[in-house]
Every structure is written in C-alpha cells, then in structure tokens.
Amino acid sequence: MVRHGETAWSRSGQHTGRTDMPLTEPGEAEAKAxxxxxxxxxxxxxxxxxxxxxxxxxELAGLARSVEVNPNLEEWSYxxxxxxxxxxIHDDRPDWSIYRDGAPGGETANEVxxxxxxxIAHLGTLHGxxxxxxxxxxxxxxxxxxxxxxxxxxxxxxxxxxxxxILAFNPSHPxxxxxxxxxxxxxxxxxxx
Length: 193
What we know:
- It is a single chain.
- The chain has 193 residues and is α/β, with parallel strands linked by helices.
- Helices cover 37% and strands 19% of the residues.
- It has 8 helices and 6 strands; from the N terminus they run βααβαβαααβαββα.
- Strand 5 and strand 6 form a beta hairpin.
- Helix 6 (109-123) packs across helix 7 (136-146).
- The mean pLDDT is 94.
C-alpha cells in the first residue's frame, strides 16, 4: 500500500479529500524513489484511487502498466473541512477528530469504515501480491480495519507522503491478518531503519 507523493496541500497540512491536486516536484521525486523498491515484486493486481495524485504516484513508481482505478480507494470526503488544516478546524472544535467525528457535509467515520471493509472484501477475491495507491487518512483506516480495529485507532497510524506499508497474513497463522510494514519511505528503506 502506497500513499501518494507530496502535493501543495499535503505539505501545508490542508485536508485534501476530493480536490484533485497534482504532485509537487518533490512529490514526483518521492514517487520515482519508490520504483526500485517495487520493481522486483510481481504484482497480480495494481489498484489506484481515481485522484490524479495517486495515479501519478503509481505511474512514477513504475506500476501503471495494468492499473485498475477503484473509487473505494479515494481519500476521506472532508465536506466543509476540505482545504482546512486541523489547526483551523480545532479553532472551532478543539476536540475534533476525523476518525471519530467525520466531516460535516462529507463522510462519517462509519461510512469510511464501510468503504474500507468493502475494499478489504474485494482484495479477498484477488490473488497474488496487490499494489494499492491511495491516501493518508484512508490508508490508515484501511490498515486498522485490515486487522479488525475500529476507525478511531487510525489516529495512531501516521503515513508520510510516498510511504510504503505492507498488509499481510501472519505466516504462522494464515487466517490472521497482520501489518508487516508501516510508513516506510525510500530513505528509511535505504538505511535499513
């Protein structure tokens, strides 16, 4: 699972749901840096969010040859909070959490949880390694739902831009889902950290 590269709004901390932002120049470089880490893996399926930032990350990472666009991989719909930073939202709602409260005029936490569960069910019908290009907050929800945790737990699963995470099955207990890698960036992968 790959979070898209940097955009102007991901750099500034603005919530970017359905606004179709392009990657910045550093974001394109981040996406290209993923290619060596993905090149040697055979993917039976490559899925991406319909957003330009996710599709471009997929392309620059070298996996756009046979990609399937899947709307269930879109970022959280932020409604009235689209384009705002968490700090701006907290000025009016100091205890607000997207993972508990959702967004007015956008998606609720339950709706995003249902969308992640639907995506997980779809993944269960596919075979082989699967590459997913998606977004920070939706990917965090997908990760926690993968292991059966509630959406609110996603607040503890941060993702850098152009980061790689691996959702897997526990080899000792094949029916058990596991998080094998979380939030690895090319610089971390190079250093072995």
